Amino acid sequence: MCAKRFSQGSGPSQRQLRVAEVIRHKLAEVLARGDVHDPELSRFSITVSEVTTSPDLKHATAYVMPLGGQGEQDALKALRRNKAELRRQVSRELSLKFAPDLKFELDGTFDRMDDARRIFNDPRVQADVANSDDPQDGATDSDGDRAGDRDGDGDDGR
Predict the structure, then answer these.
(1) In what order do the strands lie in the sheet with 101-106?
(2) Which of 90, 88, 87, 74 is nearest to 42 (CA)?
């Protein structure tokens, strides 16, 4: 038997990425078509932004967000309540030995993007960016050389 069954690399394998993307597409399609007959779930328009899978492909975590960010907890409860039906619908399209167990989490990337946008719009940050973009004539770099001098001999290479 193989001593290292799963890769110890820094990220998911290509197979994990491919399977996760197929699951994401199928899950989004099932939710958009309204194939699950739950009136609570049908009232939400849900975005599936990312799916990650375990190395053995038996577990998949779907990161979701209802359109507009309203009713996040209600949408999450409805998805979790209907996870068996969603798993069945998604696994019909997959050619895997095991249908992955679906887990649903709220996607926080939208909130992080809003925070980053707010930080970048801060006047102090804007001033720092503007100052670092336009080097003045005669300015020196960290070595004390002139800004255009690459070899440190005092001329700018011309």
Answers:
(1) 46-53, 59-66, 101-106
(2) 74
Question: Which stretches within 10-155 are classed as H helix?
Answer: 14-33, 39-42, 72-81, 83-91, 109-120, 123-133
Separation of alpha carbons 101 and 103, rounded Å? 7
| Buried b or exposed e, range 91-126, using 16+ CB within 10 angstroms | beeeeeeeebebbbeebeeeeeeeeeeeeeeeeeee
For the chain, 158 residues long, give each residue's pLDDT as a single digit of tens: 444 555 566 778 898 999 999 999 999 999 988 888 888 888 888 889 999 999 999 999 999 988 877 888 999 999 999 999 999 988 887 888 888 999 999 987 777 777 788 888 888 888 888 887 655 544 555 555 555 555 555 555 55
Nearest to 140 by CA among 131, 152, 130: 152
Rounded to whole angstroms, the Cα distance separating 65 from 46 reads 6
Q: How many CA atoms lie within 13 A of 157 on its CB side?
A: 8
What is the Cα–Cα distance from 76 to 66, expressed in whole angstroms? 9
CB contact at 8 A, 15 and 6:
no
